[in-house]
Write a structure and sequence with these properties.
Layout (H helix, E strand, L loop, with lengths): L9 H7 L7 E4 L6 H9 L4 E6 L2 H10 L7 E5 L5 H7 L5 E7 L4 H5 L25 H7 L2 H12 L4 H12 L7 H11 L5 H16 L2 H15 E11 L2 H15 L19 E3 L5 E2 L2 H6 L7 E7 L3
Parallel strand pairs: 1-2, 1-4, 2-3, 4-5
Antiparallel strand pairs: 5-8, 6-8, 7-8
Helix pairs in contact: 1-2, 7-8, 7-10, 8-9, 9-10, 11-12
The structure holds S-adenosylmethionine.
S-adenosylmethionine binds next to helix 2 and strand 2.
Length: about 300
């Protein structure tokens, strides 16, 4: 049977957290539990609060971390609700947090979930199966202009207008039901050399928009810094430029001690520098890891530390 998910940059990201004895850590994206397990294994006194929006992922994490069950707390929720959910568990401050963004290999490989343009499946793409809106609603009901905006903003797709036109004209006659149908429409609307790239970008755009991935990340990063103890670490592994840019910009903003316009004679903003960036350039996977796990190819790890305030 195929492995649920091979964790990416496992050693690098867990080392980045600098685990402290009796520390409280959050794995914001439990997935198959690869990183959660490594945290629990590496430091036998820590507690881990593992979030995932996907029920199946949490079940897999529970199974994978069975031997550490007494130190593992599973939370089925969006990491955007980090602070509230931890408060319900009576956790106000944490020693470190890890985000390993996007979808797991298991989610991509489950054709019925519709994340992949390479497999026939329903146009679903929900990370949280209890959510009502699906990819089908976007593709079949959203107006042309909105589709163009989604494909541009979340897929950075330069043939966004052609693809949106093709979708709108196809659905005049017939509902778009499957991933294969959508992939076919994109194929016909794009130049031959770009077909695969365009399909990947459009599927990515729909997924990011549908699951509000960037909005959730922005909220969670802010909350994470609020509840990190001084000296605590935040580590984020991202897989595409939209995520990585957001993380980089957020870290930079949190490192700044002044955001006054440059022409102001003196600082009036009262901004505090809350983070020290530890990775001026992101850490990338080793060649060896990329050879054994192609998912690691696009991964970028950024790390920051909470300052004493
Ligand atoms: C790349 S996988 C994590 C894999 C995990 N680190 C491992 O080693 O097994 C990303 C996981 O994050 C979850 N996820 C993505 N966005 C989320 C969000 N906003 N809130 C909670 N979970 C999220 C997905 O459902 C998926 O299971």
């Amino acid at each position: 049977m195929r492995q649920y998910h091979i964790p990416v940059m496992l050693k690098e990201s867990v080392q980045a957290l600098q685990l402290q004895p009796y520390g409280v850590y959050v794995d914001a994206t439990a997935g198959g539990g690869g990183h959660t397990r490594e945290i629990l294994r590496s430091e036998p006194t820590v507690q881990v609060y593992a979030f995932d929006r996907d029920e199946e992922a949490l079940a897999e994490t529970k199974k994978n971390c069975n031997q550490y069950a007494n130190r593992l707390h599973l939370i089925k929720d969006n990491f955007a609700n980090l602070r509230t959910r931890l408060a319900l568990e009576k956790v106000k401050l944490i020693d470190g947090i890890l985000f390993d963004l996007g979808v797991s290999s298991h989610q991509i490989d489950s054709s019925e979930r519709g994340f992949s343009f390479r497999m026939e499946g329903n146009l679903d793409m929900r990370m949280d199966a209890s959510q009502t809106k699906t990819a089908s609603d976007i593709v079949n009901k959203f107006p042309y202009e909105e589709l163009v905006r989604i494909f541009r903003d979340y897929g950075e797709e330069r043939e966004a207008t052609n693809i949106a036109k093709a979708i709108v004209s196809y659905r005049l006659n017939k509902k778009i039901k499957t991933t294969e149908e959508l992939a076919d429409i994109i194929d016909k609307a794009t130049y031959s050399r770009r077909k695969i790239k365009a399909k990947a970008r459009i599927f990515q755009a729909i997924r990011i928009f549908l699951n509000r991935e960037l909005e959730s990340l922005e909220t969670a990063l802010k909350e994470a810094v609020d509840i990190l103890k001084p000296g605590g670490r935040i580590a984020v592994i991202s897989y595409h430029s939209l995520e990585d840019r957001l993380v980089k910009k957020f870290f930079k903003f949190e490192e700044k001690s002044c955001i006054c316009p440059p022409n102001f004679p003196k600082c009036v903003c009262d901004k505090k520098s809350r983070l020290k960036i530890l990775t001026k350039k992101p850490i990338i996977a080793t060649q060896l890891e990329v050879e054994s796990n192609s998912r690691a190819r696009s991964a970028k790890l950024r790390i920051a530390e909470k300052k004493e305030l």
